[in-house]
Write a structure and sequence with these properties.
Layout lengths: L1 H17 L2 H14 L6 H7 L14 H22 L5 H12 L1 H10 L18 H17 L1 H12 L2 H6 L7 H12 L3 E9 L5 E9 L2 E8 L2 H17 L12
Antiparallel strand pairs: 1-2, 2-3
């Protein structure tokens, strides 16, 4: 047993000696995040490489992001199916959406400080969803490096624990979706009217009005149509929730 430990440590030291400074840093930081030594550092190098405009560019995180999205969806779906044996399809779908939606994935990536692991390229601007994209790319790399069972264990024990998943149970991800569900149950008609506005500084914003039947109940402005509608729906929710227990009617087991 002691001899086995000696050779394991020896091989680990030999492997580290062959790593570049960049790969050694990446391997060390990922060990802290994943709780285990990565085996194929090239996968993680790809997971934390940005796309650039060069025709001869190296591989970047996007393919692993695609794979990680599917792997994460499968692992979370199986976890929810086993955790909530009496929940119907609608509830399971809502819970999965709360976990894998872009906002939550961005938060998970930000908490792990995944952008610190990027190969810095001054000419490339980071998008607002980069942290979530890197989180999915990391999962894709972990899946290829360790296969499904170990990947599942790392996700549910290190990256997205059941206790964190439980916290999302009562979290509202989309006020617009919540109002739609509530209005359908109540057989009421909710309508969104969104148009562009030019402000005094010539900046273009979107203003959204929320109608409940013939009554205009809330409005909001934002930099995109989607954001304006969600913000207006949030304001409408708080107004309507004073009169009716919308949340109490939204959870179905």
């Amino acid at each position: 047993m002691e001899l086995q430990k000696y050779f394991s440590k020896f091989l680990l030291k030999q492997r580290k000696r062959k790593l570049t400074e960049r790969d050694y840093f990446l391997s060390t930081e990922l060990n802290k995040i994943l709780g285990t030594e990565v085996e194929n550092v090239a996968l993680y190098r790809e997971a934390f490489s940005l796309k650039n405009s060069s025709k001869n560019q190296d591989s970047n995180y996007e393919r692993l992001e695609f794979l990680g999205d599917s792997v994460l969806g499968t692992i979370i779906s199986c976890h929810l199916f086993q955790t909530y044996p009496r929940a119907n399809e609608g509830y399971l779908t809502q819970m999965k959406s709360k976990i894998v939606n872009r906002k939550n994935l961005n938060k998970l990536g930000e908490d792990l400080k995944l952008t610190d692991l990027l190969i810095k390229q001054n000419s490339v601007a980071l998008g607002e969803n980069i942290s979530g994209n890197l989180f999915e790319a990391l999962i894709g790399a972990v899946y290829l490096d360790f296969q499904y069972d170990t990947c599942k264990k790392i996700i549910l024990e290190r990256l997205l624990t059941p206790s964190e998943i439980n916290k999302l149970e009562n979290k509202i991800v989309s006020y617009k979706g919540l109002l739609l569900e509530w209005s359908q149950k109540k057989k009421l008609h909710i309508k969104y009217e969104t148009c562009e506005e030019v402000q005094a500084n010539k900046a273009i914003v979107f203003r959204c009005h929320v109608w409940l039947g013939d009554e205009k109940i809330a409005n909001a402005t934002e930099t995109s149509k989607k954001k304006a509608e969600e913000k207006a729906a949030q304001r409408a929710f708080y107004i309507l929730n004073k009169k009716e227990n919308i949340l109490g009617n939204s959870k179905t087991l």
